[in-house]
Write a structure and sequence with these properties.
- Chain B: Residues 67-278 form the ABC transmembrane type-1 domain.
- The complex is a heterotrimer of chains A (100), B (291) and C (272).
- Chain A is an all-alpha fold.
- Chain A has one domain.
- Chain A is built from four helices and no strands.
- Chain A is flat and about 45 Å long.
- With 291 residues, chain B is mainly alpha-helical.
- Chain B is built from twelve helices and two strands, in the order αββααααααααααα.
- In chain B, strands 1-2 form a two-stranded antiparallel sheet.
- In chain B, a hairpin with a 2-residue loop joins strand 1 (38-42) and strand 2 (45-48).
- The N and C termini of chain B lie close together (7 Å).
- Chain C has one domain (61-271): Orthogonal Bundle (MetI-like fold), CATH 1.10.3720.10.
- Chains in contact: A-B, A-C, B-C.
């Protein structure tokens, strides 16, 4: 553990990169957007194709989690371009948000 | 059913919790995400590698093995500990000094630091100096957890049952005590059988604590590390290498920050999905019942 | 509740079997701790033949041993106080109001309990060294908040929801402000819940090793980390290890003794 801890102290704080910063900025924007949307027109729980009634926030969570898995599957088990996974995720998000 | 008033000022009450958890959860989580896409060569030397680590980790056969072992283990843990915990909680004396004494004894394993739990079972199960190890071998059953894979796996499982069933018992016991005496009297007047009392009074009242118990047991068994580390060190072979052991091997053993971070994220996502399904299912049936 | 004799006996046999299963390993630990090492390695004996307290004397007189206990107790106490004081108002908010994002917040808190501590090791080390907190008790206490605060909120919320809301409303009508109502009326009502929560906070902080060991080196080193020393010594000092193990159980046993009535008394729903 000692070598590890020595190295850890010398690593740059949080080791940011452009893509990850963009990713977190995106998440933050979505959350902010959802908050504004919620204050403007509060969500009503409803029942779509998902097996339980969901609010808008629930559907967002399901959409994001599903997208994460879509990306993982694409990266791990196919040779497809990551943008295809991204496109699929957008589609999935749209379907869940609208019909979920 | 839910007639709590809507008031966003309640956020001020939640704020301290939010801040403290945000600092100790969000910043590290972001750091892990950052590590997962880079090759950390040393201080101020890092290369962006995109999804390489994810690809590598997802196609790692050792990970598949560890994941399967983990699922089987966590499944066994829940199947044994939840029914056993409910049964013992129902049997414990409800009042008086006997009740207190039983509770104190039941809770003992929970307050033992996890590495000491490993040590206890090491001392207890060793075939040369341990009471259980010697006894089992004396019965004519060859048993040696350091060399036989199945014995090792079974020992870790029994150790976990010993260690964690008390948590289920305590939570169930607390839930049972919340049932007013009047309910039992009414059941008695109706001539309800013990099973009917359990099914229609005790079980529904315990649903909430059972939710907590199942979730806690599932999560904790899914990240079991210290006890098998002390007891078997993940061996023999890979028999008791669960996900956290595997992660620690990469992160601390080989100090591959990138793959370790990528693996952590996948690990986290799996736990997130499973717990969410669990949580949604249970709160949902909760509401159906309330209707 | 359980009137007939036959069922009574069967149940008790099961209970006794469980307690035997529960206590035998602990008995064995105790037996080991008072045996001299030659006896442990020399042959198998169910009861110790020669009883020695040399192992305990070593631990209680050597500062490098007993400081470990003091350190552990210190950060565990700190953690319990912090966890409870931030979790109480939050749990009240969750049990009494609906607000923007409440359900998601609740679940998010929970996800932090699920995160494997191994994942957070290196980032935590970086985080705390940035603030110069490495090897202090407060660092470990704060790190343990990651899993204890969510748990405290969750348990307390369960207890608070058991208190009827009419009590709050009556108090507000009687002219109580929130702080006064919360401290003088509400908290005493859920003191059983507070006891149980404190117990769980204590427990999870006391038993955690991975984070506690990584964030400390000398000044705040927990006892569980001190124990790993015996492993690296020439051969295994089983007796000393067992004695140290016994001593780690003692503070826990004392704590349960104090909260036993709270757990037993439980939610006290019937009386409110």
């Amino acid at each position: 553990m000692d070598i590890a801890s020595e190295l850890a102290t010398e690593l740059e704080w949080m080791a940011w990169t452009g893509p990850t910063a963009a990713f977190f900025a995106g998440i933050a924007l979505i959350l902010a957007g959802m908050t504004v949307w919620q204050t403007v027109s509060p969500t009503v729980e409803r029942r779509g194709f998902l097996p339980m009634p969901t609010t808008r926030g629930d559907r967002l969570f399901i959409g994001l989690l599903g997208s994460a898995y879509i990306h993982l599957a694409t990266v791990g088990f196919t040779d497809l371009n990551l943008w295809i996974a991204f496109g699929l995720s957008l589609l999935w998000m749209a379907v869940v948000m609208r019909f979920g | 059913m839910d007639n709590r008033p809507h008031d966003n000022k309640a956020w001020f009450l939640v704020l301290p919790v939010f801040l403290i958890v945000a600092i100790s959860a969000i910043i590290p989580l972001m750091t892990v995400v950052n590590y997962s896409v880079q090759d950390i060569l040393g201080p101020f030397q890092r290369v962006f590698v995109g999804t390489e680590w994810f690809e590598q980790v997802l196609n790692d056969e050792r990970l598949h093995g560890a994941f399967l072992r983990q699922l089987v283990f966590s499944g066994c843990v829940l199947l044994i500990q939840i029914p056993l915990g409910i049964a013992i909680a129902l049997t414990l004396p409800a009042k008086g000094w006997r009740s207190s004494l039983c509770l104190v004894l039941v809770a003992l394993p929970l307050l033992i630091p996890w590495n000491v739990v490993g040590t206890i079972w090491q001392l207890y199960a060793r075939p040369d100096i341990g009471m259980a190890g010697v006894a089992v071998n004396a019965l004519g059953i060859p048993y040696n957890y350091t060399s036989n894979a199945f014995d090792a796996w079974l020992t870790v499982l029994i150790m976990d049952v010993w260690h964690w069933t008390p948590l289920v018992i305590l939570l169930c016991f607390a839930g049972l005590r919340s049932i007013p005496e009047a309910f039992y009297q009414a059941a008695k007047i109706d001539g309800a059988s013990a099973w009917a009392v359990f099914r229609h009074i005790q079980l529904p009242k315990m649903r909430r604590v059972l939710t907590i118990a199942i979730l806690l047991r599932f999560m904790d068994s899914f990240m079991i590390y210290t006890e098998p580390f002390v007891l078997t060190g993940g061996g023999p072979g890979n028999a008791t290498t669960f996900l956290s052991q595997f992660l620690a091997q990469i992160a601390v053993g080989q100090f591959d920050l990138g793959p370790a971070a990528a693996f952590s994220l996948i690990y986290f996502l799996v736990i997130l999905l499973l717990s969410w399904v669990f949580y949604t299912y249970i709160t949902h049936t909760d509401r159906e019942d309330a209707r | 509740m359980n009137p007939t004799g036959v069922g009574f006996k069967k149940r008790h046999i099961g209970l006794i079997a469980y307690f035997v299963f529960l206590l035998l390993p602990i008995y064995w630990l105790l037996a080991m701790s008072v045996k001299p090492n030659q006896e442990i390695l020399g042959g198998f004996s169910l009861f110790p033949q020669t009883i020695t307290f040399a192992n305990y004397v070593t631990i209680l007189t050597d500062p490098s041993w007993y400081n470990g206990y003091l350190n552990s107790i210190q950060y565990v106490a700190l953690n319990t106080v912090i966890s409870l004081s931030v979790a109480l108002p939050a749990a009240y908010a969750f049990s009494r109001y609906r607000f923007l994002g409440d359900k998601h917040m609740f679940f998010w808190l929970l996800t932090n309990r699920m995160a494997p501590p191994a994942v957070f090791l290196l980032p935590f080390f970086q985080l705390y060294s940035t603030f110069g907190l490495i090897d202090t008790h407060i660092a470990v206490a704060l790190a343990h908040c990651l899993f204890n605060v969510p748990l405290a909120v969750w348990i307390l919320e369960g207890f608070m929801s058991g208190v009827p809301r009419e009590i709050d409303e009556t108090a507000y009508i009687d002219g109580y402000g929130f702080p006064r109502f919360f401290l003088t009326i509400f908290l005493p009502l859920i003191r059983a819940g507070i006891g149980v929560t404190a117990f769980f906070c204590f427990m999870f902080s006391w038993v955690e090793l991975l984070l506690a060991r990584t964030l400390t080196s000398v000044d705040a080193k927990p006892i569980a980390a001190t124990m790993t020393r015996t492993v690296s010594a020439a051969g295994m000092d089983w007796g000393l290890l067992a004695a140290a193990g016994v001593l780690t159980i003692v503070p826990g046993a004392l704590v349960i003794w104090f909260v036993r009535n709270y757990i037993a008394k439980g939610f006290a729903l019937g009386r409110v």
